[in-house]
Specification:
Chain lengths: 156, 174
């Protein structure tokens, strides 16, 4: 009986709490084209509060504010690049998930290829060095005969 | 013996890189605004709704802009330090009450002390976006020409105040 009471209490509590969740569903904006562009742009941007979430997916308050800002900029007729530049000028390159290619990011972009080249050079030089270590020992006449006998013996 | 030296060397380099990386604070993103003019705005003041505040009023002065809110827990941590700083009269401190309710802000200052010359109200967070605010509290040092010279993300600690902010303010005041 007690358990039933407890369950009823939990259910009632859930019912009271549930309208809070409803708040998360932000009203769909009037213009689906703007919304589509907003998603497209904000997926490429980092939310600075929860740094591993994109601006599109984050429920942080700052992300909501920034989405509102981006939405306004779209409505004002800014291009995607202008909007990204707007955010970079305030929050730095860190907001971009795809950093620009410039002197400070050369190592970031080129690093993997650099490592690949270093690996290839090491591999080739190692293989060359190793091939030099294997000296072909010429067969003496006696050995050849023995080998022939052995091979024949195997066949028969 | 020799063949183990290279992998060991690589391992030590990797560990030292990771050790440095783990000690960095990922919350501290270098601000592109340092060295740039402080973005302009004009918003109502906290204690006097009819009066406006704009950074242009502070032209010719070295001043601090501190972004705070009554809902911000770390602001409580830095508040005594700001109160002390205001008492020293080093340089004017302006507050930016960020995404807060007016009554809450006023009550909060009444309870914990008001170190600010005045507080400007940024109720919808737009000024904050222009200043690149993403983790309240944040503090900006702005020079006489209105250029941002330093940004502290997160609470001002006594160390930051003594070693960075105060020497910078003194130098800018020369």
């Amino acid at each position: 009986m007690r358990i039933l009471h407890a369950m009823a209490a939990v259910l009632a509590a859930l019912l009271i709490v549930s309208p809070v969740f409803a708040k998360e569903a932000t009203p769909l904006a009037e213009d689906p084209v703007v919304e589509q562009r907003l998603i497209h742009i904000s997926e490429e941007l980092r939310c600075l509060v929860c740094q591993n979430e994109s601006l599109a997916g984050s429920q942080a308050e700052l992300a909501q504010d920034l989405r509102r800002e981006v939405r306004d900029l779209i409505k004002q007729g800014n291009s995607d690049q202008q909007i990204k530049d707007f955010l970079v000028s305030r929050y730095g390159d860190f907001v971009l998930y795809r950093p620009q290619f410039k002197p400070t990011t050369w190592l970031l972009w080129g690093g993997p290829f650099l490592l690949l080249i270093v690996g290839l050079v090491v591999l080739v030089s190692y293989l060359r060095r190793r091939s030099k270590l294997i000296v072909e020992a010429p067969l003496s006449e006696e050995d050849r005969k023995r080998a022939e006998i052995l091979l024949k013996g195997e066949q028969s | 013996m020799n063949r183990f030296l290279l992998p060991l060397g690589i391992f030590i380099v990797l560990v030292s890189f990771l050790a440095v990386g783990l000690r960095l604070n990922p919350r501290e993103v270098p601000s592109p605004l340092v060295g740039k003019p402080a973005p302009d705005f004009s918003v109502p003041q906290l204690h006097d709704e009819a009066a406006m505040f704009s950074p242009q009023e502070m032209a010719g002065k070295v001043w601090l802009l501190n972004v705070w809110a009554s809902w911000c827990v770390s602001c409580r941590e830095e508040h005594p330090i700001l109160n002390e700083f205001a008492k020293s009269g080093t340089t004017p401190l302006v507050g930016l009450n960020y995404k807060d309710k007016r009554e809450d802000g006023i009550r909060w200052l009444a309870r914990f002390g008001d170190p600010y010359l005045l507080s400007a109200v940024d109720s919808d967070g737009r000024v904050g976006i222009n200043y690149g605010v993403y983790g309240v509290p944040e503090t900006y040092v702005i020079d006489k020409a209105g250029v941002i010279r330093f940004k502290q993300i997160g609470p001002v600690t006594p160390a930051v105040l003594q070693q960075k902010i105060i020497p910078l303010v003194q130098e800018l005041n020369k």
